[in-house]
């Protein structure tokens, strides 16, 4: 590295040390209502249908996607 590159890198790292760091203030409270069995079942089913089903479709039809017709 040349001298000017080293000086540039040193000046950039020195600048980042002086910048204030903002921290997220995340506070959690207990839920107002407990989740029931039906709520959990609906949530898991919707996750399965929205994420796993399309990816499973693509993986099961991967050979047909590889062939160009």
TrEMBL record:
Q: Which GO terms describe its cellular component?
A: mitochondrial inner membrane; respiratory chain complex IV
Transmembrane ranges?
40-59
Q: Which UniProt keywords apply?
A: Membrane, Mitochondrion, Mitochondrion inner membrane, Transit peptide, Transmembrane, Transmembrane helix, Ubl conjugation
Q: Does the keyword Metal-binding apply?
A: no
> Which Pfam families does the entry mention?
COX8
* Gene3D superfamilies attached to this UniProt entry: Cytochrome c oxidase, subunit 8 (4.10.81.10)
- Any Gene Ontology biological process: mitochondrial electron transport, cytochrome c to oxygen
Assembly behavior: Component of the cytochrome c oxidase (complex IV, CIV), a multisubunit enzyme composed of 14 subunits. The complex is composed of a catalytic core of 3 subunits MT-CO1, MT-CO2 and MT-CO3, encoded in the mitochondrial DNA, and 11 supernumerary subunits COX4I1 (or COX4I2), COX5A, COX5B, COX6A2 (or COX6A1), COX6B1 (or COX6B2), COX6C, COX7A1 (or COX7A2), COX7B, COX7C, COX8B and NDUFA4, which are encoded in the nuclear genome.
Q: Tell me, what does this protein do in biology?
A: Component of the cytochrome c oxidase, the last enzyme in the mitochondrial electron transport chain which drives oxidative phosphorylation. The respiratory chain contains 3 multisubunit complexes succinate dehydrogenase (complex II, CII), ubiquinol-cytochrome c oxidoreductase (cytochrome b-c1 complex, complex III, CIII) and cytochrome c oxidase (complex IV, CIV), that cooperate to transfer electrons derived from NADH and succinate to molecular oxygen, creating an electrochemical gradient over the inner membrane that drives transmembrane transport and the ATP synthase.
Q: What's the family? A: Belongs to the cytochrome c oxidase VIII family.
Please identify the protein, giving its name as recorded: Cytochrome c oxidase subunit 8
This protein's species is Odobenus rosmarus divergens (Pacific walrus)
């Amino acid at each position: 590295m040349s001298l000017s590159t080293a000086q540039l890198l040193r000046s950039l790292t020195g600048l980042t040390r002086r910048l204030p760091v903002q921290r997220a203030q995340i506070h959690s409270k207990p839920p107002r209502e407990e989740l029931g069995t039906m709520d959990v079942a609906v949530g898991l089913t919707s996750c399965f249908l929205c994420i796993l089903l399309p990816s499973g479709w693509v993986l099961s039809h991967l050979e047909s996607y590889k062939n160009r017709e």
